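Homework help board

Subject: predicted structure for assignment chain

Our instructor gave us this sequence and asked us to write out the predicted structure in token form, then describe one feature. I got the tokens but I'm not sure how to describe them. Can anyone check?
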Amino acid sequence: MNLMANILLNVLAAFLVGSVLFGLQRKIIARIQMRPGPPLIQHLLHTFKFFIKETVFPKTAAMPFYVAITVILCAIWIAAVIVGPVSEGSLLILFAIFAIHKIVEHNAGSSSGSPYGKLSCVRAVFSAAAEVPLFAVLILIYLQTGTMNLSDIITYQGTHGALIFSIPLAAMMFFVLILSKAYYYSPLNITLGKDLVSGFETEHFGVLRGFIMLSESISWYMLLWIFLTVFIGGLTPIGYLLGMVIITALVSLIDAITPILNPNHSVMTQVTLAFVGIVGTVLMIFYL
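My token output:
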């Protein structure tokens, strides 16, 4: 298979699987709350729907940045697929993409001129204070494996066993990061809190919203793919799919039974768990 076909296939798979996993998340939350819930393909249908809806632009929007930011959001997650599943490149580049996503998230909110979007972009900056310590998982992985290259990390686990058993607290830190990015009712995702309507997405319509939803599906797929690859190792396509379903179900359970935290409590919870994970993992690496 040539490179371009491989990229297109992986991007399409990331979009479709990510969209269905979002539908699964909503379905599980609804069932726990004794509601029927939407069909599994609801997020996918919404994405397609927005691509055929009329695209309108708020008078308060900062043009052309308002349009460009949605294209950038989509482009960085396509780049993540290329660095990850396609080439198994550097983990450092993937985390750089997460950092860029945080910047794009901030600017998507501010560019619309909506008060909800502006408050969401302020929260994006605030939440970065919690996510930076969680990104210290990079250093912990390097201390354990001596590499940041995904293919080398997979090889290391083939010889020494899955990292989830040798540095479980680092895996816990990354899981908290995944939980903070959950799209529906996450107790930690303050940028999309229901008090902000749709957060930084509130004033994006039509094709622009379609691109945002496409990006969200790919980003959720990539978060789960990185977790499984880094902490369990290279899996078969069925193994990846099963792992993603299990993690999504666990996240859905937490989202359904926990209250949505206010920004201060969300940040402090993540910082506390990051501190426990960093200190505990360093002790395990050097003293066990």
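Reply (TA_rk): Your tokens look well-formed. For the description, you could write something like this. Residues 3-32 form the longest helix (30 residues). That's the kind of observation they're looking for.
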